[in-house]
């Protein structure tokens, strides 16, 4: 399963990229706005730092505007995936971009039918928002299962990019289903690294080594 970071925060992107954990990045207008700086600089930097796919989102709501913005977004790098909303115009733009070999991520997917239509429009990724479904009392992970079954039935190449991830259990469940990608807020990836027994175990190993060194002062590893 590929891991993308769902952020426009350069510090987090550099940190986890240096650890070799990132296969890509997803952004959206809200994440850009949260950082507060000039989005142009952020887009330039992110596409330079990351080798894998970087989803940059259009803000036009009609087809021709999406096409213009998508082409401009692609100027930031060959690794840019144009992110379009799951609307009739978004699907039309998805079809056009895909037929030109430009990868598209269709976002704001909340039903299996929407995912099916995006796949038929040539999307490289569909982004079902599982946390927002959980928030309204619907089972977000069940949507991932449905999409996985549908895509397998028809051998669609479109990848399931699990978005709106809120906690590490979402990641485990998505991996068990066989989702292609999860895009994670930095806080969730941070939590995935941690386990209290790892810290306790390491503290004990180091304390025992210090004891051993008292008896063998010249010992080095
Ligand atoms: O990429 C966007 C998606 O992950 C949104 O997440 O937490 O705003 O529902 P959230």
Task: Explain the overall architecture.
By secondary structure, this protein is of the alpha/beta class. The protein has one domain (2-187): Alpha-Beta Barrel (TIM Barrel), CATH 3.20.20. 54% of the residues lie in helices and 17% in strands. It is built from 11 helices and 8 strands. It has helices spanning 10-18, 29-35, 39-49, 63-74, 88-99, 112-120, 130-135, 140-154, 168-177, 186-193, 196-215, and strands spanning 2-6, 24-26, 53-57, 80-85, 104-109, 125-128, 159-162, 181-184. Strands 1-2-3-4-5-6-7-8 form an 8-stranded parallel beta barrel, surrounded by 7 helices. Strand 4, helix 5 and strand 5 form a beta-alpha-beta unit. Helix 6 (112-120) packs parallel to helix 8 (140-154) and helix 8 packs parallel to helix 9 (168-177). The radius of gyration is 21 Å and the shape is globular. The mean pLDDT is 97. Residues 6, 26, 28, 129, 131-132, 163-164, 183 line the site of SN-glycerol-3-phosphate. SN-glycerol-3-phosphate is lined by residues 6, 26, 28, 129, 131-132, 163-164, 183.
Short summary:
The protein is α/β, with parallel strands linked by helices. The chain contains eleven helices and eight strands.
What's the N-to-C terminus distance? 35 Å
Mean pLDDT: 97
Low-confidence blocks of residues: none
CATH class: Alpha Beta
Number of extended strands = 8
Topology as a string of helices (H) and strands (E): EHEHHEHEHEHEHHEHEHH
How many separate domains? 1
- Write out the CATH superfamily name: Aldolase class I
Major sheet description: 8 strands, parallel, barrel
**Biggest sheet, strands in spatial order?**
1-2-3-4-5-6-7-8
CATH level 3 topology: TIM Barrel
Helix content: 40-55%
User: Can you tell me the CATH architecture?
Assistant: Alpha-Beta Barrel
Q: Overall 3D geometry?
A: globular
Bound molecule kinds, no repeats: SN-glycerol-3-phosphate
Please count the helical segments. 11
- Please identify the structural class as seen in this structure: alpha/beta
């Amino acid at each position: 399963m590929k891991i993308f970071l769902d952020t426009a925060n350069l510090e987090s992107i550099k940190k986890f990229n240096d650890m070799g954990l990132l296969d890509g990045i997803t952004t959206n207008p809200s994440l850009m706005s949260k950082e507060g700086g000039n989005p142009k600089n952020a887009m330039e930097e992110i596409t330079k730092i990351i080798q894998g796919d970087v989803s940059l989102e259009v803000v036009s709501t009609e087809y021709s505007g999406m096409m213009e913005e998508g082409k401009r977004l692609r100027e930031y790098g060959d690794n840019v995936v144009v992110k379009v909303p799951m609307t009739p115009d978004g699907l039309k733009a998805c079809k056009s971009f895909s037929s030109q070999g430009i990868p598209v991520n269709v976002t704001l997917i909340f039903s299996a039918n929407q995912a099916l239509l995006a796949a038929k429009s040539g999307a490289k990724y569909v982004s079902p928002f599982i946390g927002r479904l959980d928030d309204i009392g619907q089972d977000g992970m069940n949507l991932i299962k449905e999409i996985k079954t549908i895509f397998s039935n028809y051998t669609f190449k479109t990848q399931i990019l699990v978005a709106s991830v809120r906690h590490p259990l979402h990641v485990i469940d998505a991996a068990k289903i066989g989702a292609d990608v999860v895009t994670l807020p930095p806080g969730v990836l941070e939590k995935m690294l941690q386990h209290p027994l790892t810290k306790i175990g390491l503290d004990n190993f180091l304390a025992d080594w210090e004891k051993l060194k008292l008896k063998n002062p010249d010992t080095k590893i």
